[in-house]
Specification:
By secondary structure, this protein is α/β, with parallel strands linked by helices. The protein has three domains: 6-49, Orthogonal Bundle (434 Repressor (Amino-terminal Domain)); 60-162 and 294-322, 3-Layer(aba) Sandwich (Rossmann fold), CATH 3.40.50; 164-292, Rossmann fold. Helix content is 43%, strand content 17%. The chain is built from twelve helices and twelve strands. The chain has helices at 6-13, 17-25, 32-45, 51-57, 78-93, 109-117, 133-141, 164-177, 194-209, 223-236, 248-260, 294-310; strands at 64-70, 97-103, 122-125, 145-148, 159-162, 183-188, 215-219, 242-245, 270-274, 288-291, 318-321, 324-326. The strands form two sheets. Strands 2-1-3-4-5-11 form a six-stranded parallel β-sheet, sandwiched between helices. Strands 7-6-8-9-10-12 form a six-stranded mixed β-sheet, with helices on both faces. α7 (133-141) links the parallel β3 and β4 (145-148). α5 packs parallel to α12 (294-310). The protein starts with 5 loop residues before the first helix and ends in a 10-residue tail after the last strand.
């Protein structure tokens, strides 16, 4: 039999999960009628609070928010700093302490230990996977959280994410407008990530819609990986005339590899990269950029979590932020 969760109690009592959590902790006042309804639902369902949730309910809560950010590389990138700084600013202005949790693996134990400490009232989750154990854990514990990203199934979840589907389609549209038919996508190498999975699907859909072949090459968040991925791509598909690169660190490496093979940017090879934190590494060339608007996404997610912790009613619980297409000098008409 499946374990009864706080979400099941909330559904039966016709209240939010946070209201159930308040009823169990006694930290915030709720009406007597609502409290009776919740406890009746608990009794009927046989709900037993998670030990972590119980420990949180019996100790003094700290006005702190945890920002859980598994790193994609040993060094923090400019894009990652933009997410972190924007969220921290909103959280600090609201009177909460900002606690950054970074690690280089997907071990959920990091989060479990920190959540059990009771040092944070809620969490923001970055690098969201299509099937994310952190989401299941926090949901079962009744701990408030907001995703910066999306899972495969998002019913009942709170999230703010980049509308990457629109962004990818705009990139392909712009390149085909310039006559390019041989377009490749240097994508994030971890296909378990929601962002990566959606970007690849969107690229396939955009190409199919325009009767183009979908060509892919995985790469990591680094200059060296972009250089290696571009070399593999040109060796495998020398007819490629345009590329889309999922981060600008890798894009800088891709440009280096293209130049080493005698490909000029944009005369011989057009390029669009996501974000712009390493534009200076592309030399004097101002690249064409799909800006996923990291600051806006992180700020809105932080504000959403603060509203949840304050018991405010949210007008939107799932928000998609449209990326900005910034025209530069790295795309040109395809030569016959």
């Amino acid at each position: 039999m499946a374990r009864v969760t706080i979400a099941d109690v909330a559904a039966k009592a016709r209240v939010s999960k946070s209201t159930v959590s308040h009823a169990l902790s006694g930290k915030r006042s709720i009406s007597e009628a609502t409290r009776r309804r919740i406890h009746q639902a608990i009794a009927e369902l046989g709900y037993r609070p998670d030990p972590v949730a119980q420990s949180l309910a019996t100790r003094t809560r700290h006005r702190a928010i945890g920002f859980v950010f598994p790193l994609l590389a040993p060094e923090v990138s400019g894009l990652e700093v933009r997410f972190i700084a924007s969220a921290a600013q909103v959280i600090n202005r609201a009177g909460y302490a900002f606690t950054l949790m970074t690690h280089l693996d997907d071990n959920i134990g990091h989060l479990e230990q920190f959540a059990a400490s009771g040092l944070a009232e809620g969490f923001l989750l970055m690098q969201v996977q299509m099937h994310d154990e952190r989401v299941t854990y926090l949901d079962q514990c009744g701990i408030p959280f907001v995703l910066i990203g999306r899972c495969e199934e998002n019913r009942g979840l709170y999230y703010v994410d980049c509308h990457i589907e629109l962004g990818i389609d705009r990139c392909v549209e712009q390149l085909t407008h310039f006559g390019h038919r041989q377009i490749a996508f240097l994508h994030q190498d971890n296909l378990a990530m929601g962002f990566s999975a959606r970007a690849i699907r969107s690229f396939a859909d955009a190409c199919q819609h325009r009767s183009l072949e979908s060509v892919y090459e995985p790469c990591e968040l680094s200059f060296a990986s972009g250089e290696q991925a571009m070399a593999r791509l040109l060796d495998r598909r020398p007819e490629t005339t345009a590329i889309i690169v999922w981060n600008d660190n890798a894009a800088a490496g891709a440009v280096e590899a293209a130049l080493a093979r005698g490909r000029r940017i944009p005369a011989d090879l057009s390029l669009i990269c996501f974000n712009y934190s390493s534009i200076s590494r592309l030399g004097s060339l101002q690249p064409t950029v799909l800006d996923i608007r990291a600051e806006d996404v992180a700020a809105q997610a932080a504000h959403m979590l603060i509203c949840l912790l304050s018991g405010e009613v949210l007008s939107e619980t799932q928000v998609l932020v449209e990326p900005a297409f910034i025209e530069g000098q790295s795309i040109a008409p395809c030569r016959p």
